[in-house]
Amino acid sequence: MRLRRKPWIDEAIHDYDSHIILSGQENYKGKWREAFSHPERPLYMELGTGKGRFIAGMSEAHPDANFVGFEVQIGVIYYAAQKIFEAERDNAKVSLFDIAGIEEIVAPGEVDRFYINFCDPWPKAKHAKRRLTYHTFLDRYARLLKDNGEVHFKTDNEGLFMFSLEEFQNCGWELKNVTYDLHSTDLPNVKTEYEEKFSAKGQPIFRLEAVKPAATKEA
């Protein structure tokens, strides 16, 4: 769902230029680590960062890693940039970009981990190719991840989760920490805004971690 465009954001967002990348992302390909003061740290990317509660929380919980969050809606990413700016997180940035073109701006083997949280389930079978856990997307992530790199995936949609389990397995990913009710476990967890809202209503949260297949072909 897209939020109604707020014209004032186009100007106000520049208050957070130190923590947001609005254009020229192709110039960062192979150089995302250099955007941070500690480029030697692991590089984690969130695909669809929303209003930023997750990336802000994760960057605080893991100060030894660098985080980049991608979001396609400027009216949403404004709030993410605001959160990490006000928290003075020097290990987190957000970028206005459609992740369908992720390979245009990220180099093979550049990323240590991808996070995918509560993406659009695209419930109709004819739209399966749009799901961020469809096998063509998984192949892209595998190319961009380092050896033994991981994808961490959370959703409240059981159908999407079962579909995703099958896609990961069919593509040769190793699965671990699979849970059908995340909040009943002791697994570390930083909630998204969406997660907080729906888990409060008793909705179980599904989660998995997937390790990149050992043999990954170049595009």
TrEMBL record:
Pathway: tRNA modification; N(7)-methylguanine-tRNA biosynthesis
Pfam families: Methyltransf_4
Keywords recorded for this protein, A-Z: Methyltransferase, S-adenosyl-L-methionine, Transferase, tRNA processing
Cellular component annotations (GO), alphabetically ordered: tRNA methyltransferase complex
Gene Ontology molecular-function annotations: tRNA (guanine(46)-N7)-methyltransferase activity
InterPro entries reported in the protein's UniProt record: SAM-dependent_MTases_sf, tRNA_(Gua-N-7)_MeTrfase_Trmb, tRNA_methyltr_TrmB_bact
EC category: transferase
Catalytic activity: guanosine(46) in tRNA + S-adenosyl-L-methionine = N(7)-methylguanosine(46) in tRNA + S-adenosyl-L-homocysteine
Keyword S-adenosyl-L-methionine in annotation: yes
EC number, UniProt record: 2.1.1.33
Annotated substrate binding sites: 124, 156, 192-195
Binding positions for S-adenosyl-L-methionine per the UniProt entry: 46, 71, 98, 120
HAMAP family, A to Z: tRNA_methyltr_TrmB
Function recorded in the entry: Catalyzes the formation of N(7)-methylguanine at position 46 (m7G46) in tRNA.
Family that this chain belongs to: Belongs to the class I-like SAM-binding methyltransferase superfamily. TrmB family.
Stated name of the protein: tRNA (guanine-N(7)-)-methyltransferase
Organism the protein comes from: Veillonella tobetsuensis
Record lineage: Bacteria, Bacillati, Bacillota, Negativicutes, Veillonellales
